[in-house]
Amino acid sequence: MAKGHSFLSHRLHSLLGLFPIGLFLLFHLTANYQATRGPEAFNTAAGLIENVPFLLVVEFVFIYIPILFHAVYGLYIAFQAKQNVGNFGYFRNQLFLWQRLTGIITLIFIVWHVWETRIPKAMGAEVNFDMMANILSNPVMIVFYAIGIISTTFHFSNGIWSFLVHWGITVGPRSQRIATYFTMVVFVIVTFIGLRAMSAFIV
Amino acid sequence: MAEKLIHLIITRQDSPDSTPYKEEFKIPYRPNMNVIGALMEIQRNPVNAQGQKTAPVNWESNCLEEVCGACSMVINGKPRQACSALIDKLEQPIRLEPMSTFPVQRDLSIDRSRMFDALKRVKAWVPIDGTHDLGPGPRMPEVERQWAYELSKCMTCGVCLEACPNVNSKSDFIGPFAISQVRLFNQHPTGMMNKHERLEALMDDGGIADCGNSQNCVQACPKGIPLTTSIAHMNKETIKHGLKKFFFS
Transmembrane residues, as ranges (chain A) (predicted)? Predict the structure, then answer.
């Protein structure tokens, strides 16, 4: 890492996790949720996204580049820690470990997910309901996707909590405790949306 | 009736570079003993549990009332001061290990220089030296003095560094205590005059950004210092300082 830039890099890492990556996650999962209203509703939603002007530029600026930075710097942070939940089994230390584990699981999941959907699209395949239904016709992939979604939503929800501390918004123990409850609720809601959307593709 | 014994398992190391090993001791029980008392008993009669004569265990201690921080060690898995660790309240066998986050010098004594280097880095003092009398400094509001006093209880014992997963051989993180000391000196009416210097030091590599919010420090601190509150507060101050510098020079 460049000398003298760790403060900037850490804060950028924390900010990008929420804006735009977190926002994109929420957008992506709600768009998928349209599948619960039938294949046509999902295909219409997917078609709307296809029509965004300068889509490729939008994808690179708001999705690929931020995720790439967040992932690479995140791995650096994750492997710098020496985990010690064995001796210090406190709640926040457990979440410290899980934030790093889910980060790695989520990265593997995203790479696979992009490989299965976005890369074929670039090769000329059409992204629609059938594409996902086809992927999820394999029970192994259902388990893999479920783990991937839960891991992503956990990393996102707990990441909100860390963001609030890193940016000095929740300072005292009381506000940090309430932020814990809030992010737990976010986790439950976003996980429900993600898993319910996934189940709609299982025919 | 058989004599009541205290069973100790001590992680020992003969020199800074040698391999650590475990040695067991069984020493006679006396009521109201602390871990230091048990170590002094071994010093008096350096014989291990197998009945062999051995070198007495090396450790550091000074005040014996949990205000100097010198006797910090890992007792039954938790870093704490040996003087305030009472034998009657510990589960046996009692496992004593050095705080291995720091370079071990011999047995239980460690080198905490990195903490003093961290304090120097963040300039954790109030510069008042001058050639003439500067007169009395500004007064401090009583409410602020009360929480500042809590922060001033830090004795540089090293327990928060031992508990922190982000302080290790792979990182140069200064540790929770140094961030809390910046908060203490930055709100002192005279220390405040140099607050930008301490903020910049915190924003350097190995500074506040290396905190990963495991919050072990606040659980482990023997003086009950609100370390995570200090860190979050300094997060806010460093962000403010960084934005101000970027936008307004």
Answer: 12-31, 51-76, 97-115, 135-157, 178-202
Q: How far apart are CA B242 and CA A113, in angstroms?
A: 37
Yes or no, beta carbons of A165 and B210 under 8 Å apart: no
* Partner-chain residue, chosen from B212, B232, B238, that has the shortest CB–CB distance to A96: B212
Q: What is the pLDDT of residues A149-160, one digit of tens each?
A: 999 999 999 999
Which pLDDT score, from 0 to 100, does residue A1 have?
47
The token pair that represents B29 in the structure block? 């029980």
Residue A142 lies inside a defined structural domain of this protein: yes
Contacts of A53 (CB under 8 A, 6+ apart): none
A7: chain B residues, CB-CB within 8 Å: 203-205, 207-209, 238, 242
Rounded to whole angstroms, the Cα distance separating A198 from A113 reads 13
Count of domains in chain A? Answer: 1
Residues of A in contact with B212 (CB under 8 A): 77, 81, 96
Residue A1 lies in a domain: no
d(CA A64, CA A46): 18
CATH number for the domain that contains residue A123: 1.20.1300.10
Domain that holds residue A141: 6-200
Torsion of CA A159, A82, A106, A167, to 10 degrees: 20
Give how far A191 is from chain B: nearest CA, Å: 24
Determine the pLDDT at residue B2. Answer: 65
The phi, psi pair for B110, rounded to 5°, reads -125, 165
Tell me, what's the pLDDT at B132?
87
Q: Which domains does chain B have, with CATH numbers?
A: 5-110 (3.10.20.30), 113-248 (1.10.1060.10)
Express each pLDDT in A81-126 by its tens digit.
999 999 999 999 999 999 999 999 999 999 999 999 999 999 999 9
